[in-house]
Structure prediction request, 617 residues.
Amino acid sequence: MLELAGIIILGILAQWTAWRFKIPAILPLILIGLAVGPLATLYTEDATKLIQPRFNGETGLFPGESLFYFVSLAISVILFEGGLTLKRAEILNTGPVIGKLISVAVLITFIGGGIAAHFIFDFSWEVSLLFSALIIVTGPTVITPILRNIPLKKDVSSILKWEGILIDPIGALFAVLVFEFISANAGGEFTMVALKEFGKIVLFGFSFGFSFAHALAFLITKKIIPHYLLNVFTLAAVLGVFVLSEAFAHESGLLAVVVMGMVMGNMKLPNLKELLYFKESLSVLLISILFILLAANINMEDLYLIYTWKTAALFAVVVLVLRPLGVFASTAGSTLKLNEKLFISWVGPRGIVAAGIASLFGTKLANEGVPGAEYITPLVFMIVLGTVLLNATTARLFAKIVGVFLKQSEGIMIVGASKFSRLIAKYLKEQGRSVVLIDTNKSNIRTAKDEGLDAKVADVYSDALLDDIEYNNIGYLLALTGNSQINDYAIDRFGKLYGENGAFRIVHSSEISNPNENPDAGLFSSTDDYVNLMEVARHHGEIHEIELSSKEHFRGLLEITKTDPDIVPLFIRGNKKINLIPSTATEVEVESGNLLVYMGKKIVEQKSGEVTMEESL
Prediction:
């Protein structure tokens, strides 16, 4: 009882440590597992492990085959959750570079890793290719903590983010298929019998996964399952599909749940987001338990197996040869610069799925007597730990060395994607600025995307915005929603993270009546709230520029905007800079030749100096 409770407590503490120090959770989990497992035999009086998952196959927390059963079921839930996150539309919209990274680079790693393992360790081709299939998988849970505090161009961070998200389930599926091909062969020569067994595995895996995904989706859509049972019913269904598929074709269960997750993830289910949150929370708990168990189950003899120069040579080939080769082949002909390609080549940490599947497959094949299978688990763990440690400690420094580290974040995040927000975003984009719009209104986001803007459905009350490495280049935050509470909350919560150079909001309607109470974060004008901005955008939906001759000229025009409700001052542009106009407008630097950027009726200056406005519509 003490050991079981200890695993859960240590696992959650490891997750908290990872969150607190912004490191991948797999790092403390595996280190804790090794510390209470094989390394404990070096410092305990009786030379035993503090946590003994399985001892001589007879005793321990999980005696006999129960450890493998638990690991199999846990991995099935984790892979199902991974499958749910894989969207067909996302693959189609990610661009050619990411498409090649999850295809061309995967093949290079698979073939190159297999050749390297075969000739360095003298493994059979089957074991070598299984090893290479396992090290394909990276993941967002590893990439995100490493890159979270490194300001990068959006192109670079976006490529690394989407590679991690997409390759996670694809790589897992790839590894499962390779393992099942080896299992069908059972360690002998590949014969027609082995190929038939493999075909049966693939057939039942895809059939059960596809069929039960649609069956479960039907039950959810028709509301046959009560809302309070939805999550646990789905969990039971996933475990049931895994076991059922295994009964019809041994080793087809993992394939079935991956396919089931992918199919359901691409359906329009009413409660999919809620289902994802539950599965994510469950996966965190399972991963916390799983990796301490798997690391603790490794013996010192397994570690001694890889205590050789061959391990260092294989690690060097994977990190310094295969990863750069895959990246450069995938980015050939792209707009990425050489330094950006070098940085993407350097950052390639292997993730949780790789280590989890490696433990399961390696142990199963070792029990079946496949020569060299005993190396798979410790070798993959070494690759995972090595790449995570290497990238976590050197990624920031390497970014500075190759010149992809942004000294100042100039990107702009606009909260709210209404009509006037889109007008402002479009203008800023035309001036070469990186702009992203976020909103909970899907219609607004869809319209923004149709207008060629970068936009995303997101909620400022969600933690998802805190972990999105695509926003590492954001340095300005503009809260432009019609809800004053949301604007204030956005500034308070994300001001430090995304407002490095400034966090601003439009003034509240209650602040217009008393200009003396205008906040420091007030934006554009002390007389224009959300309602007036929307009216101006609706009736005069254009942004204009007028050249300024002096600061006095600027102040005169500003007074005109205060008296005319159909004109809103936005920015001062000049010397390749765009400065926001605060609602107080007292500290704006203006030079002769600068441009006043404003929205609304066009200001016309006559040669006589008289100022007129276009007629109202």
Q: What stands out?
A: The mean pLDDT is 82. The first strand starts at residue 411 and ends at 415. The chain has 24 helices and twelve strands. Residues 24 and 142 are 5 Å apart (CA to CA).
